[in-house]
Amino acid sequence: MKNIDMNKLDDKFIQVARESNNLYKGLCILFDKIREIESPEDLTLDQLNQISSLTEIIKSYAKSHNDFIDNAY
After folding, report:
1. pTM of the model
2. What domain of life (predicted)?
């Protein structure tokens, strides 16, 4: 059976938890931006650009987070 370094495992778990929390915060910011829009007619180009940018950042972060988890365990 493989010997597991518990400190290393704990460090990875803590890093995953922090990254998950950051991802959650990013999703909350995106959700708040979307909720600011009362109706599709009220959507401005600036708001659309902000939402699009946030979405791309979150997608990129989620991919790197997923890759880290795949490689960590």
Report:
1. 0.67
2. Bacteria
